[in-house]
Amino acid sequence: MPSDIETFENIFLDLSRTPGRFRFAPSGMGWRPTTGEIWKMANTELSTAQWSRAARGYELKLFTRTMGIVQLDGFELDDLDRVKECLKAYYKVNLEHREHALKGWNWGKAEFSKSELYFNVANKPAFEIPFAEVSNSNLAGKNEVAVEFATADAGGGGTDEAGNKKKKKAAAQLDQLVEMRFYVPGTVKKGDEDAGSDAEGEEKEMSAANLFYDTLKEKADIGEVAGDTYATFLDILFLTPRGRYDIDMYESSFRLRGKTYDYKIQFENVKKFFLLPKPDDVHNMIVIGLDPPLRQGQTKYPFLVMQFKREEDMEFDLNITEDLLNEKYAGKLQMHYENPAHQVVSQIFKGLTGKRVITPSRDFSSHHQQSGVKCSLKANEGHLFCLDKAFIFVPKPAVFITFDRTAHITMSRVGGSVSASRTFDVTVSLKSSEGGGEYQFNNINREEQSSLEDFFKSKNLRIKNDLVDDSSALLAQALKDQDMDDDDDVAAARGSADEDEESVDEDFQAESESDVAEEYDSAHESSGGSDDEDGPGGEDEDDEEDEEMRDAEVEVREDGPAKKKIKTSKK
């Protein structure tokens, strides 16, 4: 029989970084760390208990009625008998001893229990996933299910069906497992577990991945939130993350439902809320800042960007009772809305989250009387908005820079030609205390220079102006470039003629005009007969050779074909 209090030293609670002292008592149990808060649990809260091998020795896992799963790690093997006696004597609970699979296989069978997902290998659990630690799940492919876990800064996994906040780990390590993917092949019949399916005679097949996904959403409470929705907006266009989503708004959270991904976001994670008029006179954007950011695989989205048409009107009735409206949301929400769509959505978000709607500063107006300027951040085009205390660039990647983080602003333009002066760049350099670095917004219209410069001065921001404003220098450079272009054009036009004049036929050897007599010369004489009529006692042999054999040099004009030497024989 154990004593009134049993104490165990160097015990870790829920993967805590520091150990503490754990005690069993007839009234309950408790854990006191060296530094931090004390954890306690009443004796009526315990449901079942398991003993198994763990990272720091042996683990005692407690399944409670309303507090989820409690993990106590760091026990020695010699503590097994003491723990078993305490649980039996104080709480009338038998300790179950479980062995884990150590084969290292990554294929097995998934089993859903009341509080955990077991991955069994050879009928032994390889690992368990508490549903309280699952923050989201999505179908990542036809046969693939992605499971996302709550991080230390995520505030746990939301609320359970009873409305209690889900438990999160007492303290997490620097490296945390944030996502796991399961490959679930094959198909199952939807009516296998349905008693009425045999009577109907028809059973619909569905993929095993879909069944796994639906079961996990139900068990982990990441599907439909308990209770009615206050508001539902259908087919809302999101620029970040790209796609169309339905928005379901609840008392303490809202849910994005898309074709591929579903997200559940707590209102406490909403840190900023912006309403920005797009400088095209057609659209308005709603930007929601999240901390921690939304995760989609390896990609993080610290901002959600929605887009609405300005001319799109919406009539909307809030799904809430008047008593609850007057009791909890008096002055924040109203039963009926009839305004442009972006105003209705922003007003409901403001009422439920309690966040102030941030709009562009009235101290800034662009050359075209807009609240933002078009620019690009690296290879991404977007719009830069000047707020009262910060800059924000949307839609992707969304960047938020407060003035108190800004060291100085540089207005610069690459190159000195006239064509480059049509646009300029704005570089925002951060303070060294903020980690340094800079953001360069490129291709801003030259007309926006004065309005931006005036706004920077009104906010007492340091400006470094590297723009080339000397018009005479620009004009001289332009004239110089034009003269160089004219010289190139003249040289190109005379190129073919100069080449023809300078080209020389190296094979041609010039002779004097008297060497060869042409037919039109007065010295030319015809033989007057054929070779057969010539007698041996006729003219001189040299004269005969001159008459019978003449070399004629034919010179071709410069604009004709290539020069040739033609040798003709007269018979």
Give the secondary structure arrangement, pairings included.
Blueprint: E1 6-13, E2 20-25, E3 28-33, E4 39-42, E5 46-54, E6 57-64, E7 69-75, H1 80-91, E8 95-97, E9 109-112, E10 116-121, E11 124-130, E12 134-139, E13 144-149, E14 179-183, E15 187-189, H2 197-200, E16 205-207, H3 208-220, E17 231-240, E18 243-249, E19 253-257, E20 262-266, E21 270-277, E22 283-296, E23 299-309, E24 313-317, H4 322-328, E25 336-340, H5 341-353, E26 372-377, E27 380-386, E28 390-394, E29 399-402, E30 406-412, E31 423-430, E32 438-445, H6 449-458, E33 463-465, H7 471-493, H8 495-502, H9 541-548, E34 549-550, E35 568-569
Parallel strand pairs: 5-8, 30-33
Antiparallel strand pairs: 1-2, 1-7, 2-3, 3-4, 5-6, 6-7, 9-10, 10-11, 12-13, 13-14, 15-16, 17-18, 17-23, 18-19, 19-20, 21-22, 22-23, 24-25, 26-27, 26-32, 27-28, 28-29, 30-31, 31-32, 34-35
Domain Histone chaperone RTT106/FACT complex subunit SPT16-like middle: 370-466
Protein name: FACT complex subunit POB3
GO molecular function, one term: histone binding
How is this structure best described in words?
- Pfam families: PH1_SSRP1-like (PF21103), POB3_N (PF17292), Rttp106-like_middle (PF08512), SSrecog (PF03531).
- It is found in: Nucleus; Chromosome.
- This protein is α+β, with helices and mostly antiparallel strands.
- The protein has nine helices and 35 strands.
- Strands 4-3-2-1-7-6-5-8 form an eight-stranded mixed β-sheet, with helices on one face. Strands 29-28-27-26-32-31-30-33 form an eight-stranded mixed β-sheet, covered by helices on one side.
